[in-house]
UniProtKB/TrEMBL annotation, chains A, B, C, D:
Residues 25-216 form the Isochorismatase-like domain. The keyword Hydrolase applies. This is Isochorismatase family protein. It comes from Parvibaculum sedimenti. SUPFAM superfamilies: Isochorismatase-like hydrolases.
Length: 223, 223, 223, 223
């Protein structure tokens, strides 16, 4: 069983079997919606690097479903009128991220309910689960994800999806604090840039859980 | 007003005044206790880099107090017998961090109530506040920190202290999600190594809040 | 200013003005949907007493809106397939309430997303807000209500709607713990029976907030 | 197996075995401290009715320990200076309860850390657990109780202790929402008066869990 420890792929010693058990495990796919992934100038919060993983994600999710592992899709949805963000207490990223990337033209439309920006671009199959009151960075806050996982008696969560150094990292912190075993799939997450992706995965590997390739996880699930 | 944007110190545009207002602001100092900082072989979770900031932290806290800004000291405290960690559901770091740094000899004693490992090494003054049910990585979980901040009507939190890429970063995510304005003091936090410190501060600057030097924050507070 | 103290309507002394200020106040209307209120044999969780307050509620909400007080409608919504209730860890009421009232024929359909049972029977106006991940008894858990109220800078909540001795009482406990001022409108809530309604309102009046008639609250708001 | 359904003791049908399994069960004893129970004029929040259950509680706890069921003692502890209550956002009960019982002379001292008012009057044995950041009415908020129970893999909670219609009822709502099975021990809780005790136990029996006599629970545990 192999995982990335501080960026280097290594054979792990014994004692990590609970991370790669299919039992009590769910895949959590974060924010793979048009608001991040649309390849149009009005995309309100573009994460173009994540477009490359749409098909690989679909493929991995199909394999997981075939093995009986449930898929939970997370999406950010904000109320019309901005009451829970731009006209309430604005998200920090709206203020800080433009200092680095410059103005984000259509950012006010990000995640607004009833717009195309909340449509998933990855496949959502019959039987998949959706959590959609994410309003900031964590998949857990303020959502019913922890409640759902407890009802499902989940103990291990597998993260894939968008913004390795932001929502994926934050969700990994939360999942770890809530005593779930955390696996982040190195080939199925994307972040701000190479440096931040690499750094976020190192942080996960040090403090939060395992960083694995999806092929290795599938292989472990199948044995 | 200057802050570090993705590692580069820059003059910020207008619009960040609420981050450097003394009003409704608290300093939150994370895990500056002997369990991380004791310079002895039995230190259960050593973060030796943070020893360098003990005196600078004391000095900054004195200046903050003089300006009427409250100081909240956070410490991890675990129950005797290990029921809420090693004999319950063990913290992820206990399993993953040794993959990188090797065996941590006395880790089982980390944060146990009634031991010297929970003693603060920084000064705690009359009137300072203490939050001490932190049991994993975030200062917010499972603690009464958010409850306390709401009672104090705090809107901006200033983080200093231990493990830039771990507890400080996690607490910054949580504070940001809970709609507090977040400032992390670049010269008054320490992490696993140079690379992780730098990366964690970049993540904060992109998504979570401002990364500032303490001298600049004090200067802003004084004007 | 008058309120019910342990069942008796009395003039209150000074010091309760923040409870009846329109400023930073929201009305929270709980579970006025067909799943409780439909007058058909397949109603999955009937609370017939609450049918009497549909029109009075609409009237009060119109008056509140005219005064600029926002209305937040709460509804329970459970996922198809029962993963977060009957096929997960079943709600306690599903097991205990039938001991008192007998079998509830269509209870499995209660609150299932996509069914008519989640339709509101009270008016929802443009500009009203909806919170709909309530899955057990409290309007706060596991929902984004607290997050929403903080973004709106709400300090006082006015409860009306269904099951005085259950969801209204539970939500009043939670709101009080979260440091909101709580008002329950005696004429605009209904419970299991006269005895439980009376008892729940007494409990609110002792420990949690004010029990008022809606006409008195409107009068206070208008002065 | 017998329990009180809306005030009447009855034989339950099959299907409630998980409520009376010793496995994954903990006893949670609420606020049996001098701040409520001291028989002196300066008792800051007197609940004199609960003095009668101190010895019965001790006896029940001894029997539970002998059967391997852990005891968790909850106590309210507030910071000196009143920052998290009277000088922050005051607890609702401080404002409403005096409307019914009149002025409470020493209420400002209630639960202040370092005073005698936080001393337990019931026995705390080696191996018992303590949760002590309760600051309002629920044993769960803002405390680490849920975190502790999850680490202990507890699924059923048995409540005893103080204020049937207040902290015990609130904690029962929270435990039920968090998907624990709830048992309240009718003979080992006390409330404001006979009427409120009776009402709160009826509410528990309808919506939240089982109301049992401690002797019946012990008998079930022993079979």
């Amino acid at each position: 069983m192999q995982a990335y420890v501080y960026g280097s792929k290594r054979e792990l010693p014994e004692g990590f079997e609970d991370y790669v058990s299919r039992k009590n495990t769910a895949v959590i796919s974060i924010d793979m919606h048009e608001g991040h992934l649309a390849d149009t100038p009005d995309c309100p919060c573009p994460t173009p690097r994540a477009r490359d993983i749409v098909e690989p994600l679909n493929k991995f999710h199909r394999a997981a479903r075939a093995l009986g592992v449930p898929i939970i899709h997370i999406r950010s949805v904000l109320r019309k009128g901005g009451v829970d963000d731009i006209n309430g207490i604005p998200s920090a990223w709206r203020r800080t991220f433009p200092l680095y990337v410059g103005d984000i033209p259509n950012a006010d439309e990000h995640a607004i309910e009833g717009t195309r920006w909340t449509n998933f671009v990855t496949e959502v199959a019959e039987g998949d689960l959706i959590v959609e009151t994410k309003k900031r960075l964590s998949a857990f806050y303020p959502t019913d994800l922890d409640f759902l996982l407890r009802n499902m008696r989940i103990e291990t969560v597998i993260f894939d999806g968008g913004f390795t150094d932001c929502c994926v990292l934050n969700s990994s912190f939360d999942a770890s604090n809530h005593n779930y075993r955390v696996v982040v799939l190195r080939d199925l997450v994307r972040g701000t840039n190479d440096e931040m992706e690499d750094a976020a995965l190192k942080i996960v590997s040090l403090h939060l859980g395992l960083v694995m390739d999806s092929a290795d996880l599938l292989a472990a699930w199948r044995t």
